[in-house]
Design brief:
The protein has four helices and four strands, in the order βαβαααββ. The protein has 115 residues and is an alpha+beta fold. The chain has a four-stranded antiparallel beta sheet with strand order 1-2-3-4.
Amino acid sequence: MKITLSDIEFYAYHGVLPQERTVGGWYSMDISVTTENEDATDTDNLSDTINYAEIYDIAKKEMAVPSKLIEHVAGRILRSIHRAFPQVDIATIKLTKKHPPIPGASINATVELSL
């Protein structure tokens, strides 16, 4: 079973440049978790699945910690998910920094990690 949270948006303070950690910027992410446990399909009980509201809370907490690299932020989120939900077999995050300060470019920078 795969559970995905899509298009989560945060305003956060990550970046190599000190100004990025002061001014902040917009980020978006998708998080997917995969587990062999499909009990909730039969029971209709929240305790038999992975609570995606808790996944969101983990992402929100980690996004609030300023970091230089979005790779580091993504890794922290995935490790926190695995600690909170040992039944997760694979967790994947796609974290996008909207409009990073690259002169002359209007782009997004994305990192995708799986654990």
